[in-house]
UniProtKB/TrEMBL annotation:
Residues 4-181 form the Reverse transcriptase domain. Transmembrane segments: none annotated. This is Integrase catalytic domain-containing protein. The lineage of its organism: Eukaryota, Metazoa, Porifera, Demospongiae, Heteroscleromorpha. CDD domains: RNase_HI_RT_Ty3, RT_LTR. It holds the Pfam family RVT_1. It comes from the Eukaryota. Residues 792-806 have a biased composition (Polar residues). The gene is 105314037. Residues 792-844 are annotated as: Disordered.
Amino acid sequence: MARLGVISQIKEPTEWCAGMVPVRKKNGTVRICVDLTHLNQSVQRERHQLPAVEQVLAQLTGAKVFSKLDANSGFWQIPLAPESAILTTFITPFGRYQFHRLPFGITSAPEHFQRRMAELLSGIKGTVSMMDDVLVFGKDQKEHDYNLTEALTRIEKAGLTLNKEKCEFSKTTISFLGQVIDNTGVHPDPRKVSAIKNVPTPQTVGEVRRFLGMVNQLSKFIPNLAERTKSMRELLHKNRQWTWEEPQQEAFDAVKLASLLCTPALALYSSNAKTIVSADASSFGLGAVLLQEQKNGDVEPVAYISRSLSATEERYAQIEKEALAFTWACERFSDFLIGIQFSIQTDHKPLVPLFSTKRLEELPVRVQRFRIRMLRFHFSISHVPGKDLVIADMLSRAPEGTPNEQDLLLEEDTRAFIEYIMESLPASEIRLKEIEKEQKKDPVCAKIAQYCTKGWPDKASLSVSLKQYHSLSSEISIVNGLLMRNSRIIIPSKLRQQVLNQIHTGHQGLTKCRERARLSVWWPCLSQDIQRLIERCHSCRVSQEQRAEPLISSPFPELPWQKVGMDLFEFKKTTYLLIVDYYSRYIEVAKLRHLTAGEVVLQCKSIFARHGIPEEVISDNGPQFTAQSFSDFSCEYQFRHITSSPYHPMSNGEAERAVKTTKFLLKKEGDPYLALLAYRVTPLSNGYSPSQLLMGRTLRSTLPTTRENRKPHLPDCDVLKHIEEEQRRKQKDRFDCRHGVRDLPLLEPGDVVWLSDRHENGTVEEQVGPRSYQVVTLSGSYRRNRRNLVTLQQPNGNGSETVGESTHTENEPAVSETTTTTAPPLRRSTRITFKPLQYDPSAT
C-alpha cells in the first residue's frame, strides 16, 4: 500500500488514530483493515442522491447488447486532501500511517464515489453507473460498441482502472440491480424468490407455525388467507394429532404460489426508500429478507435468500452464527446496500453493542472478522423480538441449497483470519494443545464450551462459578478448539498459577503485568490475582518506590524571620551555609572554612546578629546539625531546632528550593554579591521583594529608582497571608494532581518494612511524626519518612507504583511537609564528616 502511494508514514502528533487489523488472504497476501468507526461518528456525510431504479431500468427499453464495467479498488482511485488524510491515521507495529486515497470504511465514501462516477460519465449515452458498477448498453452491436468506446476513453483519460476479471462485455443477458436484463426487457431475478419458492413441506407443528407466521406478514397479497390456511391451522390445536395429508399439502402449495409468485409479492427496489435487512440463523441454516418501506408506509420484501450452514459453520457459537447471518446477507444484498444508510434487524440482543459501541479488539475473533467485512456498509443495528423476525427465522430453518462459491470464500476468509490471530499468540503449538486439553478436563470450561455451541441458559439457573461468565457470553467463543474471550485464551484453573508466574517474569510491576496479560490470556479476577501475586513478591515489594502522598503545606509564619530553614551546599568546590526566611524567602549565604559544627554555629551567630534569633530552625540530619555543639547552640540562643526525615528533602522544602535558586544565580552572574542583591530586591509572586518583607524597605541596587520607592513601606499582613495561603492551596492542588497522590497506609509498631535507602529489613518501633517512623534494623535504629518504607507485612491498603518527585518553580513558595522536633539518633551519613569543633585544633 505504501509503494502504491495509498498510505504513507506520519511522524507528527494527530488528533485521530484508528486501530488496524491485518488479515491474511487465501493467496497468502495480507489485507490491511482499519476500523474507522469512531471517526465516522464525526464525519459529515455527502448527501448524493442515487438514481432511482425505476429511472435506470426505464433507460434500458429496446437495449439488446450489454457490458458491465467494474472499477478496480474504486475508492483507492480517489485522492484525499491533506487535511482529510491526517484524520485517517492508524497505528501499526511499525509506526503510524495515513491514507492518501479514499479508504474503505469511511461513511461518506460511497456517496462521494458515486458522485465522481456520475460526473465522469456525464453526457455519454447508453451508460448507467451504480457505485463501482457501470452498465453500458445499445440497441444493437454497433451502438453498444460506440457507447462502450466513449465510456472507456473517458475512464482512461480520468486515470481510472478496471477489474478485468469482473468486467463483462457484449452480453445479451446480464444481471444488474437485482434484475435480469435481456433483449425482451427487464425481469425479476429468480434468485430473489427462490428461497421462499423452495421452502420444504413442514414436518412438525413448529414448522407449520413458523410458515404461517411468515405468510401472515405477506397477507395483503393473498386473498382469503384465513380460508386457504384453515386445514394447516387445524394442526396447531393442542389435542390434534399430526396428520399431513392432501388438504394440507394443497393449502401449502396454494399459499406459496399466491404469496410469493404473484406480481406484487416483491417490491421494486428504490435507492431512496428506507431499507431494512432482517437476518436470522438456526443451528443448521441462514435466512434473510431485504425489506423496504413503500410510499404508503407499508414495509414490503424486495428479495429473499437462505442457505444451509457448512460443517465448519455449524460448530460456530450461536452469537457467531447470528453475526454470520447478517454479514452474509449484506454481502449478498450488496448491490442494493452499498452507498445507502440502512438498518439491520436481529433477534440476538448481544450483537447490538458488538457492531455499534464496542471496540474491535473486544469482540470474539470470528465476530471481529465479520465486523471488518461490514466496514464498507453504513448501517445501524437494532434488536427485535424473535416473533417479529418470522420471515428470516422461517428461511433459516428451511435453508435452500448448500453454500455457494462466494459463501465458501467468506468461510475461508474467516478461517484465515483466525489462523492469523492464533499465530500471533505468544505460545507454541504444543502449549496451545496443552491448554486445550486442560480446558476439556476443567468442568467449568467444558460447560462454557457446551453453552457456546448450544446457547446460554438464564443466569439464575447457573452455578456460582459459571455466573461470572454469563455477562461475557457475547465475547466468548471456541476458536480452533480453544475457549477464548475475544482474542484472549481462557486459562483453566489448573494452569492459572503457572501462567501467573509467566506473566510476572521480569518483575515489571502491576501495570505492565496487566498489560502483558491482556494481550493473550484471561480468566475471572485475573487483575486481582496479578495484584495479589505482586504484593506477595518480595523482589517487587522491595524494589518499588512509593507513590507520592498528598502534600502537607507548612503554615505561613506570622512574623518575618520567625521560622528559617538552613542547609549546606557545594559550589565550585567550596561549601556554603544557606539560611532562608520562610516568611520573606530572604536568603543569607555564608562561606564555610571548615565542614564542622563549630563553623556552622559561628556563621549562624553572625547572621542572627544581623536579623535576630528565629523562633524555629529547620535543617536536615547532616552531622553538623546533629552534633552536640549545635544542640547546645539552640539551647543557648533559645530557638527550637527541627530536623527533617533523612532521605526526604521535601521536609525542608524552602531550604532545598533556595539552594537551587542560589546555585542558579551564582552560575549566571560573575559577581555573586550583586546576584544575591538582585534576588533580594526582585518582587516575588506575592508582589513584594524579600527585602521589603524582611526589612520593610527596598534595598538600593545598581538599577536606577526614585527615593520614593526606597522609603520604608510595610506590607498589609492580612493581605499577604491570604495571598500566600491561596498560593499554597493551588500548589498543593497542582502537586496532588500531577503526581496522582495517595495516602500510604499507616504503620504500626512491629510491622516489618524494607528501608529502600539501606536495602535491608527493619521493624517499626514507633511513629515519631505524621509521616515519620523510627525503625530498628540489625545495623541500628533509623528515622525514616513513610515513603522510604515498603511494607513487607501488608497493612490495610496497597502500595503504589513509582511517581517522580516534585519540582518547584521560581518565585513560588516552596511548601514543606510537617516535621517533628523529636531528636533523631545519630546515623551514618553520606556527607564527608570531620571532627567536632572541640577536637579540631585548626578551628577558631
